[in-house]
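Journal club prep — side note

Before the paper discussion, L.F. wants everyone to see what a predicted structure for a comparable chain looks like in token form. Sequence:
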Amino acid sequence: MSRVESASGGIAARWRWNRLVKLALTGGAFVALAIAAWRFREAITNVISSTNPWLLGLSTVIALLANYLTGFPFHRFLSQAGIESSPARACYLQLVAQVAKYIPGNIWSAVLQAQLIGSGRIGALFLAGIDVSIFFMMTVTSTGLGLLIYCQSPALGWAVALCGWLLSASIASSAWLIRLIDRLACLLGKQLHAPAISSSTREIARLFAWASIHSVTMLLSIFCMLIATTPYRHADLIISVASICLAWVAGTIAIFVPSGLGVREVAFVYLASKFGVSADIKLLGAISIVARVTQTLPDILAAGVVGVVELSSSLRRRRPE
């Protein structure tokens, strides 16, 4: 056996092993959530029975809008990677990513997006997706920290959030990830198709605007969801929203399970209890599970939208001229 064949076999074996590990972790997360749901079933029943369905529906629609809006910075990151697309198309591709994120393996969103736009540059789409994730992890972290500080000092809380959004926009505008991959590619004798990108005040302002708009839309959705499903008001409500934001970041960092399954729930319970939300562990666990289900509703709605659009497009292509 040649060295090339041996190396290829080793890569394939590691890929299979990683896939098995991710599938096992995903299955374990599902089982753990099912056990938690059974243990907290009484608290979950109480939360569901007191839910305002109209406000929950409004939260779902607003969350879908927030997911759609992530396409505007995604459009900028696609440009940094040398892929031309309209802003509306980029927003639609982000809805596709919401559907694919539940599939074990982080590449599937890029694969589906590449098929939809007829591009073979899956790697560039994957990098643009990573850019989006990092950008929103920074902005959502700033939002969560700003909310926590807001409870003590509203002015300082606003300052932390705004400075965090501005810092996120400044970093994202520099195309740091594409530059890093380009340098690594040059060391390997490869060449990327990414154009030369230079950060500008206009680019920073544009990304800052989208960070602000997305954060406000996301917060409105979470506030509506918690008001619809919990009795929380004032400080408890703000701290719970901040905990959900920071738990979302923790779940996004946990790339070994799809959509941070189980990680977000544990992080929410830990953070909410540490930050002093007036509820016991059972109620917080019930809220985290109900929040997981309700935050999945926009993804189901996104799947419906993508399905209808693709079906309509397929029917138009088959229709005779």
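L.F.'s comment for the group: The chain has one domain: 3-318. Keep this in mind when we get to the figures.
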